[in-house]
Amino acid sequence: MSEDYKKQSTILAELGSLYHKYSFFGVDNDQLPGIYALNQKAKEPIIVAYIAYALAKCKHRTSDAVSFTELFCADGFYAMIAARLGYEKSIGIDNDKDGHFRNAKLIAERLGIRNVEFNRDEIASNSMFESTDVVANIGGLYHVNNPKNILAMSHRMAKRYLIVQSVVTLATDDENYFESPAPGWTWGNRFSRKSFDKMIKELGYKVIDCHFNELEGNDRLEDRGSVYYLIQK
To answer: Are 155 and 127 in contact (CB under 8 A)?
Structure first.
């Protein structure tokens, strides 16, 4: 193993255990224990595929500049991936409630990613963030008590594509199920797979692709389902 490879693979070591595994960037960092590794393995392939697809479809010429925003970005992982894939401008937004966001800028610097910025802010239904070609609302909708309004705001932000991922319960398939706070929590919400899909259809969004899988890191049925949508404006 070359010294250059060793240096590259350990550049995040001093930051301790992180929310995401950064192997996409050729880095072998420690990841937080428990749910994180298995859940990332479930989510990352489909989310990255949607980000890459949206970028490709936004370009008519290789020189076309395409912009991206990740809402509820935590440590900014997917905003960084968007920047590395070729988005000219990438933005990550989070309120840092769980403490992951504070490392985002430093991680990006260590990875040599320059075309990404991070904004600490609350995400609300009346938020007036900068519009970008692609918006990704990933892992945030199930944390709020007004998911439909937050989803509508995200859709308004997106000029071309909206990427959505959210946790849904596997404890019921009721197409009318919605619970807030989420079961066992004092905050957040839960849809079923069918009721989330019903909401998307009622909003009239143009769905290009959708996907469902299980978050195998989560034990409870209420936390184990994961839905994904690629929506075209």
So the answer is: no
Other Cβ atoms less than 10 A from the Cβ of 31: the count is: 16
Per run of 10 residues, the mean pLDDT along the chain (length 233 residues) is 56 93 94 97 98 97 96 98 98 95 96 96 95 97 96 98 98 98 97 98 97 98 98 97
> In one letter, which amino acid is 141?
L
State the DSSP H helix or E strand holding residue 136, giving kind and residue range, or none if neither. strand 132-138
Kind plus residue range of the DSSP H or E element containing 149: helix 147-157
126 neighbors 153 (Cβ within 8 angstroms):
yes
- Which has the closest alpha carbon to 223: 99, 139, 123? 139
**Residue 175 contacts by C-beta under 8 Å, 6 or more apart in sequence?**
192, 194, 195, 197, 198
As a three-state string, the secondary structure of 67-84 is EEEEECCCCCHHHHHHHH
- Pairing state between β 132-138 and 158-168: parallel
Q: Write down the residue that tokens 């319960």 correspond to.
A: 169
Q: 105 Cβ partners below 8 Å, 6+ apart?
A: 76, 118
Asked if residues 72 and 139 have their Cβ atoms less than 8 Å apart, the reply is yes
Which residues are CB-neighbours of 170 under 8 A, at least 6 positions away?
A: 193, 214, 221, 222, 224, 225
CATH of domain 34-232: 3.40.50.150
Helix H, strand E, coil C: the string for 84-111 is HHCCCEEEEEECCCCCCHHHHHHHHHHH
- pTM of whole model > 0.85? yes
